[in-house]
Amino acid sequence: MTFASFRQIVMLTLLTTGLLLGIDRIKNPRRAMIGSEGAAPAPVADKPTLHLWLGHPSCGGCLTGLEEALSEVAWLEAPKVLEKPPTPEQAKETPDVVNGYRQQVVVGIKDPERNLRNVDFVAALAGLHKAGFSAAQMEFSGLPHYRLEAELAPMCSSPACVAGTRQAMDELVRASKPKGWFRWLDSYSVDRVNGALVIYPRMNATVDLMEVLGAINTIGFEAGSLTVHAHGAN
What we know:
The chain has 234 residues and is of the alpha+beta class. It has two domains: 46-142, Alpha-Beta Plaits (2-Layer Sandwich); 144-234, Alpha-Beta Plaits. Helix content is 32%, strand content 22%. The chain contains seven helices and nine strands. The strands form two sheets. Strands 2-3-1-4-8 form a five-stranded antiparallel β-sheet.
């Protein structure tokens, strides 16, 4: 009996493999992938979003009231009430979670590319207050690089006012950081021309807007508006 040589076995194996691949290609045609077409899609960037913790620990059936209150703020989407929060007793078990027992609401910025220039967080708070709601905490996130501009009232345009405001902010931030406040803050300045406090958050930071507004009150001003400006947009 004559056995096949090693070379013949290899040739038969290659022919069989080629035949099977050809049949598979005919039965299951595949579209050729060009460039990075077959790569996994890039993750979608965060959307500019407001995250509210309502002053009352239980929202109950408040969604309708919230929608009505915030519908007057044209640049906001419909609010989404998150799952029922834990009770105050349950929240005490995790004391490191700030406002853990309060009702949480998430509100997106409608069409950010067009409406970002219209965002005014003071107006959003006014809409809540008008309907009887209060925000224990309000955070803004979803932009990689931006600044906040708070219009100061009364107007701060004299050199003495600018210097005094800067010194007051320096002292406040220095005293507050050991308490865990302003961790998101990179820098700030006082715009003498426009009478505004300009705040620069860290990259991709979530900003505690109540800290901003509280600081402005502490140094002796009221924020006439608090607007957001994306880097390179305006």
